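2024-03-11 09:14:02 DEBUG pipeline.ingest accepted 1 chain
2024-03-11 09:14:02 DEBUG pipeline.ingest length=253
2024-03-11 09:14:03 DEBUG pipeline.predict start
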Amino acid sequence: MALFHLVYFSEALNVQTPVDVIIPEGKQGIGVDAAGEMELPKVLYLLHGYSDDQTIWQRRTSVERYAASHNLAIIMPGVNHSFYCNEVYGEKYWDYISQELPAMMHRFFRLSDKPEDTFVAGLSMGGYGAMKLALNQPERFAAAASFSGAVDVATSSKRHPQNWKRITGGKSIRGTDCDLFHMLKVNAEAPHKPRLYVSCGTADFLFDQHKKFVPAAKKAGWDVTAWEEPDATHAWSFWDQEIRKFIAFCFEG
């Protein structure tokens, strides 16, 4: 796999912005299974959590090795503490992640633009971001995953009040496009909806949010695969396992 540490000027954020990108190669070298001769790579947008940046998935997991045999490109943006939202007192991170980033990645790299070849996943804050993308733009993705996701932001906002005040300007999150439970209902009848994979450890501090989100998604008619890992915490040992499982999930059937 080829690794690119890319920095470009983001008009949405008005600043030079880093993105790490892994692109498949026909041959991988010793000890890594390769996809061989390939069509245009499929694409996984892989999102980081609250305390991390665009490098973290490479540093803490073997995601490059897991993707190698699937002709899968991995796009890893950095969004600071934005929760992947536009900020009233800050920058337009939702515009960046949902519009500008995919357009620029297809400008810079030869990638499949088919919805059936496009996936999104993330952990914690990034799990929220992945679900936000999938629920707001269901026509774009074949599958989406949240690992230990902060999926109930009305609850999560109490843990990070300074960030959410910057994002919302002090207004309620309920009933907006930042509210996943609202968006489950808004796009319940969308003609194309991605399969959802939602997992969390039973000892994770976000497990209550997971338990609330999964039945709400199923009730709204989304195709949800849920997994609860006994005694797992908010930890990379769990997320490394889960990203490997999700990549396999994307290629099932």
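2024-03-11 09:14:41 DEBUG pipeline.report The mean pLDDT is 94.
2024-03-11 09:14:41 DEBUG pipeline.predict end
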